């Protein structure tokens, strides 16, 4: 399971290549996909979302949207859906996905959020091309779900919530891109993002998928909100996941402001490396103190989270189910501050909590103010599983053998 997750992370950090509507194997060490040529078609601000195995389908990774350059014409349409079969690592792209008639969704999209839901993909927000409104791409707050097709019908996007131009008096989230998103049962959760005015947002919302209704969740008086290293509230490009029981959301990384709020030089482009937890019952956020005493924890450009289910035996010999949090993050490094971007090297770290499967049992203490033994200052230990450093010719892999 661990090695499978690591391999998937390698694919996420690799260049994604679009192909025709036919299966194609991975080649070039995972850097590209076999198309009869070695030149990859670069793509960024897209999403790659893993949909677990079902009775009728192998586990797949769905690649959606994004852009190939800063030009509006380079935005990738959601009519083009690329899937990677995670069993045999073959790829297929269809360009025939449509939108349900009468809906106002715009197919070209970048900077959206995507989560697995009911064996398919649920998409929120992003920036879309809408030339009737603006010459530049504009943010959206749409929620759309992919109804997968069959051998006799193409897939179709169903719009669950149509785009609004504003927050509609605080009843729906303002249009945004790069929001953190997670789903549990029939509820989509989002946090933060960045709006049309490049302002970083700090709000928490839930969307009832069946009732198609938004609810904003305000923290209690004195409650905390995820913030960056300069104490500015709000983040964008964070990774978020719901716990297995739906009681908590976990949020890691993201980007904040490059200087304290109000500074004329502040830019929304400062990567972060903190872990936050949201308690659904109390609607409050708390910072999780990660014990990283044995390793560095560099700030990351992107990250993804996994709750890995574990099993152990108690003192009576009974099986005890548990979970550990796995954090995979990516970034780049260079030994010289004056180095050109062409010399930057990509890195990936994979680290995990080490709690003997008790990670979820430690979360309630973060929100417990009455029991002195449950101090919010308690640290949760983490350890490195693997470190990847990539250059033009190879990828250096270091794996902690005790965790494989």
UniProtKB/TrEMBL annotation:
Keyword Signal found: yes
InterPro entries named among the record's database cross-references: Kelch-typ_b-propeller
Record keywords, A-Z: Kelch repeat, Repeat, Signal
Entries under Pfam families matching the protein: Kelch_KLHDC2_KLHL20_DRC7
Domain of life, per lineage: Eukaryota
Leader sequence segment: 1-21
Name of the protein described by the UniProt record: Galactose oxidase
């Amino acid at each position: 399971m661990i090695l499978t997750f690591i391999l998937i992370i390698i694919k996420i950090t690799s260049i994604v290549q679009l192909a025709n509507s036919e299966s194609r194997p991975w080649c070039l060490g995972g850097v590209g996909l076999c198309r009869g040529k070695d030149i990859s078609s670069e793509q960024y601000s897209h999403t790659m979302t893993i949909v677990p195995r079902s009775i009728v389908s192998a586990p797949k990774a769905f690649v959606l949207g994004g852009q190939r350059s800063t030009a509006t014409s380079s935005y990738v349409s959601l009519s083009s859906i690329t899937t990677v079969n995670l069993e045999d690592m073959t790829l297929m792209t269809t360009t025939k996905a449509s939108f349900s008639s009468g809906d106002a969704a715009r197919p070209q999209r970048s900077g959206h959020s995507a989560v697995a839901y009911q064996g398919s993909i649920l998409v929120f927000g992003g920036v879309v091309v809408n030339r009737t409104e603006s010459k530049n791409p504009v943010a959206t707050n749409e929620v759309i779900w992919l109804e997968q097709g069959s051998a006799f019908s193409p897939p179709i996007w169903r719009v669950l919530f149509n785009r609004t131009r504003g927050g509609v008096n605080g009843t729906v989230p303002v249009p945004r891109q790069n929001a953190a998103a997670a789903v549990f049962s029939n509820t989509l959760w989002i946090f933060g993002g960045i709006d049309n005015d490049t302002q970083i947002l700090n709000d928490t919302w839930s969307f009832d998928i069946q009732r198609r209704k938004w609810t904003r969740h305000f923290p209690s008086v004195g409650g905390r909100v995820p913030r960056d290293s300069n104490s500015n509230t709000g983040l964008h490009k964070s990774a978020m996941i719901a716990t297995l029981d739906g009681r908590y959301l976990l949020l890691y990384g993201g980007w904040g402001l490059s200087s304290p709020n109000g500074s004329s030089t502040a830019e929304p482009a400062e990567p972060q490396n903190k872990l936050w937890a949201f308690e659904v019952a109390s609607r409050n956020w708390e910072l999780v103190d990660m014990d990283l005493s044995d390793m560095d924890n560099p700030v990351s450009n992107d990250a993804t989270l996994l709750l890995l289910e574990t099993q152990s035996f108690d003192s009576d010999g009974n099986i005890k189910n548990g979970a550990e949090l796995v954090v995979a993050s990516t970034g780049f490094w260079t030994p010289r501050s004056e180095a050109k971007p062409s010399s930057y090297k990509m890195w990936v770290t994979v680290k995990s909590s080490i709690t003997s499967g008790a990670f979820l049992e430690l979360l309630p203490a973060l929100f417990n103010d009455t029991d002195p033994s449950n101090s919010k200052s308690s640290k949760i230990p983490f350890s490195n599983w693997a470190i990847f450093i990539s250059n033009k010719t190879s990828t250096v892999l270091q794996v902690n053998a005790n965790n494989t």
